């Protein structure tokens, strides 16, 4: 008797699931299943990249084959040249390397961008994008313009839920990570990353970038020629919900952190040493209360070239 009831229960559950699926399809609701795509420097740009035994050759081709929710797996190796730089992520994807030490996206200066605007190695223009376990390096000056490793930009719109996890941004002529103009960025996470030897800041948010929720955890900013992180001055630049925890800032030339219009920020459990100033609150934008509700606690600041903490608000 118990076995009979059990069979009826399983039948009922299955029937309900099938009915729910049919209703969703009749109403036009999307039924999405995340998939896997595979890329290898020895692969070939053909097919849909879904077979690990027959990977594609370039990241751009795999992005074109992918659907929202997919993970693009990059085998260990160096990715450079056409199809591996100026790659636009315009759908919700995870771009996953084998690990940061062996999976390298390296800019080829002989592959010149000719389609207008400025692009670096990757550009993110969609919600729910994750980049992890790889290195982005050597974006050069191109046509007199210093390029970046990654740009987050959707002109006039919002980009939400972007994550960089164990990504190394090395030796880029502009910035490692550019948070670009006229974009609202919500819930940005930088976890266990490295920003080193970039000619500009490791991370820069532009003068008209609005950020709500920015977490930087366990990340190192080392020997960047300007700052570890710079929030550019401007009345259109806002930063709310910054949380830096367990960071290492070493030898950044001008500032470890240069912040402007910032509210609800916590900077804790981090070390600051060498280079220029430590934590600077500097703004050239007019307006009331450019900083507020900022907590700096449980940090070590040593051997800096200027003030450990500087507040220089000159217009209000």
Characterization of the model:
This protein is mainly beta and 316 residues long. It is built from 2 helices and 28 strands. The chain has helices spanning 2-26, 59-65, and strands at 36-39, 71-74, 77-79, 87-89, 94-96, 103-106, 122-124, 129-137, 141-142, 145-146, 150-152, 158-170, 177-179, 184-191, 194-196, 203-205, 210-217, 220-222, 227-231, 238-245, 248-250, 255-259, 262-268, 271-273, 277-283, 291-297, 300-302, 309-313. A hairpin with a 2-residue loop joins β9 (141-142) and β10.
List keywords for this structure.
316 residues; 10% helix; 42% strand; globular; nine-stranded parallel beta sheet; mainly beta; 17-stranded parallel beta sheet; disordered N terminus
Helices and strands, with pairings:
Elements: H1 2-26, E1 36-39, H2 59-65, E2 71-74, E3 77-79, E4 87-89, E5 94-96, E6 103-106, E7 122-124, E8 129-137, E9 141-142, E10 145-146, E11 150-152, E12 158-170, E13 177-179, E14 184-191, E15 194-196, E16 203-205, E17 210-217, E18 220-222, E19 227-231, E20 238-245, E21 248-250, E22 255-259, E23 262-268, E24 271-273, E25 277-283, E26 291-297, E27 300-302, E28 309-313
Parallel strand pairs: 1-2, 2-5, 3-6, 4-7, 5-8, 6-8, 7-11, 8-12, 11-13, 12-14, 12-15, 13-16, 14-17, 15-18, 16-19, 17-20, 18-21, 19-22, 20-23, 21-24, 22-25, 23-26, 24-27, 25-28
Antiparallel strand pairs: 9-10
């Amino acid at each position: 008797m118990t076995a009979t009831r059990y069979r009826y229960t399983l039948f009922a559950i299955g029937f309900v699931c099938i009915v729910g699926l049919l209703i969703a399809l009749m109403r036009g609701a999307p039924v999405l299943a995340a998939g896997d795509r595979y890329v290898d420097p020895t692969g070939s740009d053909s097919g849909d990249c879904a077979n690990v035994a027959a990977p594609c050759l370039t990241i751009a081709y795999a992005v074109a084959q992918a659907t929202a929710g997919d993970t693009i797996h990059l085998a260990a190796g160096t990715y450079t040249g056409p199809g591996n730089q100026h790659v636009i992520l315009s759908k919700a994807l995870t771009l996953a390397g084998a690990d940061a030490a062996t999976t390298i996206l390296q800019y080829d200066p002989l592959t010149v961008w000719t389609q207008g605007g400025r692009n670096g190695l990757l550009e993110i223009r969609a919600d729910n994008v994750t980049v992890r376990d790889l290195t982005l390096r050597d974006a050069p000056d191109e046509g007199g313009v210093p390029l970046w490793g990654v740009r987050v930009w959707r002109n006039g719109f919002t980009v939400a839920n972007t994550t960089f996890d164990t990504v190394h941004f090395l030796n880029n002529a502009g910035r490692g990570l550019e948070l670009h103009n006229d974009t609202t960025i919500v819930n940005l996470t930088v976890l266990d990353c490295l920003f080193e030897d970039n000619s500009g800041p490791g991370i820069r948010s532009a003068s008209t970038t609005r950020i709500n929720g920015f977490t930087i955890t366990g990340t190192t900013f080392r020997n960047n020629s300007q700052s570890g992180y710079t929030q550019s001055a401007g009345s259109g630049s806002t930063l709310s919900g910054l949380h830096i925890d367990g960071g290492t800032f070493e030898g950044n030339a001008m500032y470890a952190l240069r912040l402007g219009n910032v509210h609800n920020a916590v900077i804790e459990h981090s070390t600051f040493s060498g280079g220029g100033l430590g934590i600077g609150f500097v703004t050239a934008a007019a307006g009331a209360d450019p900083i507020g509700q900022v907590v700096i606690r449980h940090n070590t600041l040593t051997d800096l070239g200027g003030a450990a903490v500087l507040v220089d608000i000159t217009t209000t």
